[in-house]
Design brief:
Number of domains: 1
Number of helices: 4
């Protein structure tokens, strides 16, 4: 699965959104997805967890 597809399946709009929230460039995320898949997955999960926490705190 491509990095953009992984981001979308995790509930983000795009890989660009993941880049904006994480502070990493799209190119870096693409590289990590290929060369350091564990790091990419942790960044993705961290961003999703951060978004969920924010939503829950607003309730």
């Amino acid at each position: 699965m491509k990095p953009s597809e992984k981001a979308k399946s995790a509930g983000l709009k795009s890989l660009t959104e993941l880049a904006e929230i994480s502070g990493e460039s799209v190119q870096t995320l693409n590289n990590w997805s290929k060369d350091r898949p564990r790091r990419f997955e942790l960044i993705l999960k961290g961003v999703v967890a951060e978004r969920l926490t924010k939503i829950l705190n607003e309730i």
